[in-house]
């Protein structure tokens, strides 16, 4: 499912005969970042000019990508030898390679002392691009590619693999080891534990996909291509798989490389391994509410009166509350099934807000929280202008998310032991880069996929099933019409905090809705989230599990028996052996998922180590961390520490009256539930300017 699909190629024609290579054809570079390319005024005239060229190219169906370049020649050849430096420079300019090498202007220090930018630039004043949107993911280990710089591991069956064992097809790993029909409910935590994880993830990272969903060679859509033709990298379905009757492969496109890495690095006369791009700001800054660029944030703001509000959508019956605004533009995945509904997608700060209904409900909750706070701040400070109200409310919303994440959510994931490793906050450290680590986004944090129930429960005021019934998960993908037509967001939210979550058991990882029915309404061949995660890991050059064990100071591993401390179940070690042959081959994501939980936590040892690494950086490297002295007044911090998801639910759900004080903790209604007026709240009066002139 693509969130954007603008096709932009920049091409030169090459005609060349040399001893080890002969090329006659187009060298085309896929522009890596359309937004910057198009927005960059310097290029706007070229864009229109180029449109004709691109039309011409697609009508001729004559595009060839440079993968025809024989690999063994790389050491002897450089693009410089093929194309003159002037043209290389021109391609780099036109493809957007140079345009997105931004050097942000942090000179408006009065602003940067007070507020975050939308794109995360100027948070770190010495390194203003740290944590910014549209920059490369960080690496804690060098990437591992089949050819050393851009091809996924295992892409060719008899290749340079360092071991004699071929890598298993991701789909086989999924069916043999990941998919499960059996679910064990969590004995302590609610399904909200899962939902906060996904919502948080969508504040942290989204990988930029290839801009085109069609193969470069002839323009055929990747959904109907079963060979590895860039950017398509389909997930093969083995012969004896029930899916094979339907299709030989599942849709997958590679992530967009950073310009100047992978193939395009040759253009810059150097070889850098392929790196991927994070479209979001790394910081926990509520970018899922406000967007990760100035342009996105402007689209979300309501400028009709100077009240600092976000745009509202439809009002809900008998209340002053509103739904999110609709997203304008071409029809999207939300209206694929014309028989079900013509309701378009909702618009929020993250493009994935409609991916499943419970997530949409969370986005609705938080956009309302912004408007609630903004309204209250205006009452307290009628002299503030719209921008001040907006920025102050945004700051409070982001701080609440940090507090909920570190004080309520992480302690349940990491346990006491992990919280000790994370350590207390010791103030801002400008030497820490908060950027999201590639293996965190591509493997570790996808642990949340193992916490998802196959059913979204929908509960009424007394926590019974609503007349429309509960929803099998596949019916909740991209279906915002159900919020409008089937009872609003409350039933979904109660289903999150009123029902146990799924426990990760090493033999029960992903429910079948996710491995067999993912986005089945929008794709003729349903996707498989487990296989996708594994394929994505290889796409991104994520090193195998054993390398991360070394990073994390775990015992070294020579055979599968040596994994017995972390993976106790001999059946699982046996499965790994059958699939991978050698421990050196095991993909990171599935290995992290089959590690046993450390008692009192929801993670295994390697996952713990990766989480600690990332969450320390996100906290310590954020100049606007809510506890960093000077960001808020001490009185304000005291108030922010009253924040809870329970209170946000009470204020902003359609009409929820009863919650647990900690909505991540399971309770049996009505025991353990409180009336909303008993839940502590943030007293916004300490945001009133009353000491003017001091
Ligand atoms: C019903 C719930 C969910 C669905 C349907 C879902 C689906 C997906 C899909 C389709 C992708 C993109 C896969 C790819 O092409 O590489 C993805 C990525 C991801 N998911 Fe989920 N997910 C869900 C819940 C969660 C949860 C609960 C978490 C974490 C606690 C999570 C963490 C992530 C992360 C970190 C990524 C990578 C994002 C990026 O940087 O691109 N997801 N998910
Ligand atoms: C590419 O862009 C740079 C910086 O804007 C400029 O100095 C250079 O002349 C451009 N090169 C070509 C060939 O257009
Ligand atoms: C940076 O921004 C300031 C004001 O925001 C402006 O006056 C200045 O010219 C800008 N500098 C550059 C190099 O763009
Ligand atoms: C919509 O309904 C019509 C008639 O029942 C059917 O022919 C058509 O295939 C349906 N469309 C989809 C996308 O299911
Ligand atoms: C909630 O649902 C249950 C079961 O469907 C029903 O018995 C109960 O009356 C409903 N409560 C309300 C307040 O509608
Ligand atoms: C591994 O051990 C070394 C040496 O004791 C230490 O410096 C390093 O921080 C440890 N790594 C992790 C990820 O804990």
Summarize the structure.
This protein has 694 residues and is mainly alpha-helical.
Secondary-structure blueprint of this entry?
Layout: E1 9-18, E2 21-30, H1 34-39, H2 41-60, H3 79-82, H4 85-94, H5 109-114, E3 135-136, H6 170-178, E4 179-180, E5 185-190, H7 192-204, E6 235-236, E7 249-250, H8 263-267, E8 277-278, H9 287-290, H10 294-300, E9 301-302, E10 309-310, H11 357-380, H12 386-422, H13 438-442, E11 455-456, E12 471-472, H14 481-485, H15 490-497, E13 500-502, E14 510-511, H16 512-516, H17 529-539, H18 545-551, H19 570-580, H20 588-594, H21 605-620, H22 634-640, H23 645-652, E15 658-659, E16 674-675
Parallel strand pairs: 4-14
Antiparallel strand pairs: 1-2, 3-8, 5-13, 6-7, 9-10, 11-12, 15-16
Helix pairs in contact: 6-17, 6-19, 7-11, 11-12, 11-15, 11-23, 12-21
The protein binds protoporphyrin IX containing FE (HEM) and 2-acetamido-2-deoxy-beta-D-glucopyranose (5 copies).
One 2-acetamido-2-deoxy-beta-D-glucopyranose (NAG) binds at residues 460-462, 464-465.
Region (Disordered): 294-335
Protein name: Peroxidasin like
Keywords: Disulfide bond, Glycoprotein, Heme, Iron, Membrane, Metal-binding, Oxidoreductase, Secreted, Signal, Transmembrane, Transmembrane helix
């Amino acid at each position: 499912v693509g969130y954007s699909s603008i096709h932009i190629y920049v091409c030169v024609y090459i005609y060349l005969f040399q001893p080890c290579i002969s090329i006659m054809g187009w060298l085309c570079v896929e522009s890596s970042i359309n937004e910057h390319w198009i927005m960059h005024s310097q290029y706007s005239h070229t864009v229109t000019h180029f449109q004709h060229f691109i039309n011409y190219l697609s009508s001729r169906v004559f595009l060839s990508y440079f993968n025809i370049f024989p690999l063994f020649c790389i050491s002897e050849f450089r693009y410089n030898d093929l194309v003159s430096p002037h043209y290389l420079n021109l391609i780099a300019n036109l493809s957007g390679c140079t345009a997105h090498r931004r050097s942000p202007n942090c000179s408006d220090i009065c602003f940067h002392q007070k507020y975050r930018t939308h794109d995360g630039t100027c948070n770190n004043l010495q390194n203003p691009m740290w944590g910014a949107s549209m920059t490369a993911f960080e690496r804690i280990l060098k990437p591992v590619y089949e050819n050393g710089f851009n091809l996924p591991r295992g892409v060719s069956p008899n290749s340079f693999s360092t071991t004699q064992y071929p890598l298993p097809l991701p789909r086989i790993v999924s069916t043999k080891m990941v998919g499960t029909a059996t679910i064990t409910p969590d004995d302590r935590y609610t399904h909200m534990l899962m939902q906060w994880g996904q919502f948080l993830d969508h504040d942290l990272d989204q990988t930029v996909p290839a801009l085109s969903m069609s193969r470069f060679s002839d323009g055929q859509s990747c959904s109907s291509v079963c060979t590895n033709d860039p950017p398509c990298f389909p997930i093969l379905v083995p012969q004896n798989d029930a899916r094979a009757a339907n299709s030989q492969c599942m849709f997958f496109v590679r992530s967009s490389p950073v310009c100047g890495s992978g193939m395009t690095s040759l253009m810059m006369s150097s070889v850098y391994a392929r790196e991927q791009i994070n479209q979001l700001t790394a910081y926990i800054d509520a970018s899922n509410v406000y967007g990760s660029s100035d342009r996105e944030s402007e689209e979300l703001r309501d400028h009709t009166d100077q009240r600092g509000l976000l745009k509202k959508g439809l009002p809900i019956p008998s209340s002053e509350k509103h739904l999110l605004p609709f997203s304008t533009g071409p029809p999207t995945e939300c209206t694929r099934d014309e028989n079900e509904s013509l309701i378009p997608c909702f618009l929020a700060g993250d493009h994935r807000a409609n991916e499943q209904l419970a997530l949409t409900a969370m986005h609705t909750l938080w956009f309302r929280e912004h408007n609630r706070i903004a309204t209250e701040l205006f009452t307290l400070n009628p002299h503030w202008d719209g921008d001040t109200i907006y920025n102050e409310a945004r700051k409070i919303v982001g701080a609440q998310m940090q507090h909920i994440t570190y004080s309520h959510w992480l302690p349940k994931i990491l346990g006491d032991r992990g919280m000790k490793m994370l350590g207390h906050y010791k103030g801002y450290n400008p030497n820490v880069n908060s950027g999201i680590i590639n293996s965190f986004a591509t493997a570790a944090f996808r642990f949340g996929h193992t916490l998802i129930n196959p059913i979204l429960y929908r509960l009424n005021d007394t926590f019974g099933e609503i007349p429309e019934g509960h929803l099998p998960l596949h019916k909740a993908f991209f279906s915002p019409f159900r919020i409008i037509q089937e009872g609003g967001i409350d039933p979904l939210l109660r289903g999150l905090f009123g029902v146990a979550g799924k426990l990760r058991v090493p033999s029960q990882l992903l429910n079948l809705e996710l491995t067999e029915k993912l986005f089945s309404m929008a794709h003729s061949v349903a996707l498989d989230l487990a296989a996708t995660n594994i394929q994505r890991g290889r796409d991104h050059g994520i090193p195998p599990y054993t390398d991360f064990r070394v990073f994390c100071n775990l015992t070294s591993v020579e055979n599968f028996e040596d994994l017995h401390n972390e993976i106790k179940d001999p059946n699982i070690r046996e499965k790994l052996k059958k699939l991978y042959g050698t421990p050196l081959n095991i993909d990171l994501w599935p290995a992290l998922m089959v590690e046993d939980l450390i008692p009192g936590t929801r993670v295994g040892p390697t996952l713990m180590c990766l989480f600690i690494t990332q969450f320390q950086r996100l906290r310590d490297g954020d100049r606007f961390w809510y506890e960093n002295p000077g960001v808020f007044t001490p009185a304000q911090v005291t108030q922010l520490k009253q924040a809870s998801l329970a209170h946000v639910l009470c204020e902003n759900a359609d009409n929820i009256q009863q919650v647990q004080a900690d909505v991540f903790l399971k309770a049996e209604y009505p025991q353990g539930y409180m009336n909303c007026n008993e839940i502590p709240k943030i007293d916004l009066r300490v945001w009133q300017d009353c000491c003017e002139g001091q």
